[in-house]
Amino acid sequence: MRKWLSLSGIVIAIDVYTKHLIQQAFEYGERVQISSFFDLVRFHNEGAAFSFLANQGGWQHFFFAAVAIVASAVMVYLLRKNPEQKLFCFAIALVLGGALGNLYDRLTLGYVVDFLFFHYQAFYWPAFNVADSAITGGVVLLLIDGFKNPQR
Q: Is 114 a catalytic residue?
């Protein structure tokens, strides 16, 4: 279990560090074009995925923090319960690291810093961060694991 929690810790460290770099280098809303389809930005997300519940007056910060804490406890339990299932544990460790990385922002800043911004012509994907990437990658791996092991 230690290696999975270490992986989560690495995700958290990279997430917090990259967000810190963006906060030092960019003003809120500032944007630097890196390529024709990718920009670095500094956006603040007060909601959940795609700014869900972002403009709800503040109660959502406590709600999302509570959800992240409960989900993290469940994920640690799952890591303990299934140590022999490597793909499953790898995926859970990624999701756990991402959840705790974003939780850190919510608790210390009151919002999550997003900075990776992809687009194509007039189509824009919502900005995201390392934690969001780890969560997404972990969920994809959980789906793959679920299809490979349907008995679980």
A: yes
Q: Distance (Å, rounded) from C-alpha 141 to C-alpha 149? A: 12
Number of compact structural domains in the chain: 1
From 15, 39, 105, 132, active-site residue:
132
How much is the pTM? Answer: 0.88
Helices 130-148 and 86-108, packing angle to 10 deg: 150
Beta-bridged to residue 40, according to DSSP, are 32, 116
Q: Is 51 helix (H, G, I), strand (E, B) or coil?
A: helix
7-32 confidence digits (pLDDT tens): 999 999 999 999 999 999 999 999 99
Q: Where are the alpha helices (DSSP H) in the chain?
A: 2-25, 59-81, 86-108, 130-148
Place of tokens 């519940």: 53
Verify whether residue 15 is a known catalytic residue: no
In the 8-state DSSP scheme, what is residue 26?
-
Question: Is 39 part of a structural domain of the chain?
Answer: yes
Give the H/E segment covering residue 33. strand 31-33
* Residue 70 domain flag: yes
Q: Out of 15, 105, 114, 145, which one is annotated catalytic?
A: 114
Question: For residue 86, is it within any domain?
Answer: yes
